[in-house]
Amino acid sequence: MGGYGDVQMIDENGIRVDGRGPGDLRPVSIETGVIPVADGSARVIWGTNHAVAAVYGPMECHPRKIQRQDRAVLDVRYNMAPFSTTDRMRPGFNRRSREISKVTADALESVVLLEMYPRCKVRVEIEILCAEAGTRCVGLTAASVALAHAGIPMTDMVVSVASGKINDVVVCDLNKEEDNYGEADLPMGILPNSGELVFLQMDGDLSQAEFQQAWDYNMEAAMVVHQIMVDALKGGDA
Amino acid sequence: MSASMVMKDGRVARPDNMSVSNDAGGPRNQGRASLLVAPGEDLGESEGHEAGHGVLEMDGRLRATKHGRVNDNGTEIAIEPLRTAYIPRPSDLVIGYVEGCTNNIWFIDIGAPFNAILPMSLGPGKAAFGGTRSIMDIGEAVLCRVQEVEETHSSVVTMKGMGLRKIRSGNIEQVDPHLLGRLIGKGGKALRQLKEDTDCRIIVADNGRVWIDGEFDGIVSARDQLKAMSDDAKSIGVDA
Question: Which of A179, A186, B51, B161 is the most exposed place for a label (fewest CB within 10 A)?
């Protein structure tokens, strides 16, 4: 980050490049049941981000060496489609997708009641079809809805939102330009019913006051997105 | 880590200031018999209620852990899930497929996360050691009963019992296990009606597999009705 400090992305009235105010979310829509062969699935369209998550299982755990005698394991795979970005994304697992798969699995493990299915595996596949900043948040949100849709027991659904800093102003839900040329990015995974945090990363620097502001934006946005998630589950399959 | 410790007052997403929790009874008090909930939803105070299937007691309150409809029978609050995996229980009647065998054991796919085992001592007829495949070969369907389920999900099925046998004719259909109640109906009414309408023998197994045997037209008609029921159940809003 940094090095692009002279790019102006927010005007004196607090209007951002895409016309949003500092605390505004991009439009979010969620559908369930988009992959009929999966046990549960969800599509999240968040701004221009498109993410599809599919859940399979609980099933017998293979390979056996990752099997746990006392609980199920979550096998999360985050992947970006080659056509999801303007410069072609080389297909396959890479350092970045490995990291996101891991943090997503860690976040979901704290809500899914894995001990109900010893020796099993739950497969969560997240595919990013179109990427425009914040895909890890969109992917994690989609995975939560897909897990709920599959009937996997969980204490809460994880809602993930990012806030960040552009031109020294803290703003909610960064878009592509703000993410690339901004100063900081703070993605969070939030449990909306308890306000607990299951996932937090920070890219760039934020002062304590800025961190607090970004935190507040994320918490507020999480409540909005959570309502959309619940409505999608209650509204029936696509 | 609790978010409420760091955040400013008023903005905190604590259970006590969230809209769903403000009403003490939670969604179950809204006067509708079958209310849809999402995982994590608050179901009111746990005082005087037991947490049933899909419900968890947390800090004196009940919380939904599955996506489904709330069932409150006065003492127990449970969730009837909209979609869920089949988990075998002892004495379940199941239809399985032979997936493999050793000299004295068959491995049966009963649609659960793990295959069940059927030891030769609990199998049909008498066979010499090593003769499992001559009695039931891989791919064949069997009607059997779950004898035992271990905590780790491995289960043993038996074919010793009334009516338990190899399935040689008819058709096997798959229905989501949670829809079986709807298929059978109150006191078996809906199933009886289906049997009369199609003039078929129908056996509904607890793992969601349905064996239909009869005339060709009857089987086709029964299949269509099962499919219509499944499709209907997927469009939420229809009462279970």
Answer: B161
How many Cα atoms sit within 13 Å of B179 on the Cβ side?
20
- Could you tell me if B137 and B201 lie in one domain? no
- Among the candidates B140, B167, B194, a domain finishes at B167
The yes-or-no verdict on residue A169 having pLDDT over 60 is yes
> Which of A13-17, A36-40, A54-58, B4-8 bottoms out in mean pLDDT, i.e. has the lowest?
B4-8
Flag the least confident range among B67-76, B104-113, B141-150: B67-76
Helix (H) or strand (E) holding A215: helix A208-234
Q: Are residues B136 and B192 in the same domain?
A: no
CATH topology (fold) of A28-234? Ribosomal Protein S5; domain 2 (3.30.230)
CA distances, A5 to each of A168, A201, A206 (Å): 9, 22, 15
pLDDT digits (tens, 9 = 90+) for B61-73: 999 999 988 888 8
Extract the tokens encoding A95: 């350092």
Question: Quick one: pLDDT at residue B5?
Answer: 36
Q: What is the mean pLDDT of residues B179-194?
A: 89
CB-based contact, B54 to chain A, within 8 Å: yes
- Burial of residue B33, with CB atoms counted within 10 A of its CB: 0-12 exposed, 13-18 middle, 19 or more buried: exposed
Q: How many domains does chain B have?
A: 3
Q: Which residue in B13, B81, B115 is closest to A151 by CB distance?
A: B81
ipTM confidence: 0.85
Closest-CA distance, A162 to chain B, in angstroms, reads 15
Rounded distance, CA A181 to CA A183, Å? 7
Query: Phi/psi at B169 (nearest 5 deg)?
Result: -135, 180
Closest CA to A49 of A20, A18, A77, A80: A80
Min Cα separation A147/chain B (Å): 9
Read off the pLDDT of each residue in B184-205 and give the average, rounded to a whole number.
92
Query: Do B106 and B134 lie in a common domain?
Result: yes
For residue range A104-142, what is the model confidence (pLDDT) as tens digits?
999 999 999 999 888 899 999 999 999 999 999 999 999
Q: How far is CA A220 from the centre of its chain?
A: 16
Tell me the CATH number at B144: 2.40.50.140
Give residue B150's domain range: 93-167
